Amino acid sequence: MDAIDREILSILHDDGRATMTQVATKVGLSLSACHRRFRDLEAGGVIRGFRADLDFDKLGTPFEALVFVTMATGDHSAVQAFEEAVAQVPQIVQAQRLFGDPDYQLYVATETKQTYQELYDSTLSRLPGVLRLTSTLIMKTVVAHRAPL
Questions:
Q1: Residue spans of beta strands (DSSP E) within 24-140
Q2: What is the spatial distance between Cα 136 and Cα 112, in angstroms, rounded to a whole number?
Q3: Which of 51, 67, 102, 131 is the most buried (most CB within 10 A)?
Q4: Cis amide linkage into residue 128, ω under 30° from 0
Q5: Which tens digits make up the pLDDT trace of 16-34?
Q6: How far apart are the C-alpha atoms of 3 and 11, rounded to whole Å?
Q7: Model confidence over 81-107: pLDDT tens digits?
Q8: Strand, coil or helix: what is 62?
Q9: Whether pTM exceeds 0.85
Q10: Contact yes or no for 41/2 (Cβ under 8 A)
């Protein structure tokens, strides 16, 4: 991967709707050369897909929390059961397994503080293998989805 590939990635990261013609013009390549590089980046797994950047406030789920999960045990079956259960909770919009303690970080978006509390009591606290949950409310997003280019 060279500087031109990184520039292509930066442009597409900032504007996933940019056309290949626009990208080629910005990086100073012919359309066919730019498209070839784009296909190579896709084939190599560097570009995994394109998504819409959703505004949780406008979706009606402005109450956002990070939930740190400490597992009672780290054996394979406990981890697998937890991860399968987490994948079934639609309010968990992102889940990451961490090194060290805690074991997981969950990004949760709900309608209100009350709906978060209900989700916490009825679902999050009952996820398999959980020893402890610690919640932190998100005040403001300063940097979102920045590409490490």
A1: 63-71, 92-97, 104-110, 130-137
A2: 15
A3: 67
A4: no
A5: 999 999 999 999 999 999 9
A6: 12
A7: 999 999 999 999 999 999 999 999 999
A8: coil
A9: no
A10: no
